[in-house]
Amino acid sequence: MLEMRHIRKSFYGVKVLDDVSINLYPGETLALLGENGAGKSTLIKILNGDYSRDAGDVILDGVPVHFAEPRDAEGAGIRMIYQELHYAPELSVAENLLLGRLPHRQGLLGWMIDWNAAREQAREALKLLNVNIDPMTKMRDLSVVEREIIEIVKALSRKARIIVMDEPTAALTPPEVQQLFGIIRDLCKQGIGIIYISHRLDEVFQIAQRVTVLRDGKHVDTRPIAEMTHKALVHMMVGRDIEERAEVRKGTAAIQLGDRLLEVQGLAKTGAFEDISFHVRAGEIVALFGLLGAGHNILTQTIFGIEKADSGNVHIGGHPVQVASPQDAKRAGIGFVPLDRKVNGLVLGMSVQKNITLSNWSTLAPFGIFRPKKEMHNTRHWVDKLGIRMAGGIETHTRYLSGGNQQKVVLARWLEANVRVLLLNEPTWGVDVGARSDIYDQLEALAAQGLAILIVSSDIEEVLTVSHRILTIYKGHLTGEFMQSEATQENLLHAAAGGTL
Ligand SMILES: Nc1ncnc2c1ncn2[C@@H]1O[C@H](COP(=O)(O)OP(=O)(O)OP(=O)(O)O)[C@@H](O)[C@H]1O
Ligand SMILES: [Mg+2]
Question: Distance between CA 401 and CA 255 in Å, rounded?
């Protein structure tokens, strides 16, 4: 049904796509894989008319097409679920879902929007994913994950022939992912073709029939998934073998734990969480695992001073701290990688270098004297270490980086900053397998240096691999505590779903 042939694209003279071809059959799911910056999003943005191509053809049902803008692609039945969320924050869920096709009725003063019908239609659409969100809620009042779900529902609720999903599950936990997969299978049965981009390889094996791999803007290979192993797939993406992480960790010696660097006592916030008490020691990596809306995201935001608690205390290094703002939190030695990097994490109009060194002025400018050489040196260090890739140098604005590379920049800032407690929300959101392993190494190294690290992650593999201890949260209450050695997918999910042990 779709062919993209010999596609080429450069940004500022840097080749981003170099003779890439893909094809898609009706009723199949094609996985599109590759490391961060490989060119996946660029390719599908060309398909959707967001970017123009320098060369090559796009052929739909045997007919060459030129989409000058996304509206043209939409007219041809192509739906995008973008890696970056696209929504109007001030509009309601219903308005976002029905944008451009709100139902009307004849009123006294002429045609007017039929809100009752709109609410009903939106409710019907939300049922697709079994989500319990009031259609009249404003988008800005939803959590990031809920907004992502609305994006998915929006694409699914309009008649489509081809649906492209660019990392749709980045913030979804296993039950939500399975729900989405059920829908994808139904769509395929109706003859819809799906292009599925993800860095979670286990998902690709579950949902895709074929896989196309890109590396450095070039087409590496396209193969039936049944012929592939996990290891072979990683090799195709990265061009070398990567050690299996879980194996490595099992062999690591007992870690050295120090004092309680972060201690939370009886923290509560009405409607969000209640009576939360836990601690993280120096040298320890603790994960907080919960399903959609469990309260873990707002909890970390509260510890960092973005949200306000109603009661309870936070101690840092044994001393009570009053954190009323992120500035207070930073002063107390807390670093924070937020879920929505576009809102709280990155300064898009600033260079990679400035973004990385933003929180480390005390070292880079001792006594107010700025040391540009050191700034550049430190930036280069992280760019190498985490494999941050961009078309252009460290002066490139972060706006132009691929999704995964933006995430690495946010992380590099806090690795560079001098903090004692690090809170990380989905630290590897959108990050490729190779870099993911590097990030885990960095986190372990930081813990070994005596930091206390708290991770919130929906990726259960990640939780099991990187943390020493895991706390589960359900409807704003802690429901379980597991040492790494005793944690399994089953018991974590059980506790995160409210089950008691
Ligand atoms: N608008 C743009 N201007 C300049 N460079 C860009 C632009 N969009 C993408 N690039 C560059 O093109 C390359 C490919 O980016 P792309 O977003 O397609 O990667 P990706 O495979 O989707 O990666 P990820 O897995 O991190 O999302 C990157 O080096 C990126 O910096
Ligand atoms: Mg991308």
Answer: 36
Sequence ranges of the domains in the chain: 2-245, 258-333+419-501, 342-418
Over residues 114-138, the pLDDT tens digits come to 888 888 888 888 887 777 788 888 8
Distance separating alpha carbons of residues 114 and 104, to the nearest angstrom: 5
Q: Exposure pattern of 454-482 as b/e (b: 16+ CB <10 Å)?
A: bbbbbbbbbbbbbbbbbbbbbebebbbeb
Residue that wins the pLDDT comparison between 245 and 97: 97
178 Cβ contact list (under 8 Å, min separation 6)? none
Q: How confident is the model at residue 27 (pLDDT cuts 50, 70, 90)?
A: very high
Is residue 481 within a helix (H) or strand (E), and if so which, with residue range?
A: strand 477-483
Please provide the CATH number assigned to the domain covering 258-333+419-501: 3.40.50.300
**Ligand 1 atom 4, closest CA:** 400
Q: Is the pLDDT of residue 250 over 50?
A: no
pTM for the full predicted model:
0.81
Distance 55 CA to ligand 2 centre (A): 21
Architecture of domain 2-245: 3-Layer(aba) Sandwich (3.40)
Q: How much distance in Å is there from the Cα of 229 to the middle of ligand 2?
A: 23
Higher pLDDT, 418 or 18: 18
What integer pLDDT is reported at residue 244 of this predicted model?
A: 61
187-212: string of b/e by CB count within 10 Å (b at 16+)?
bbeeebbbbbbbbbbebbbebbebbb
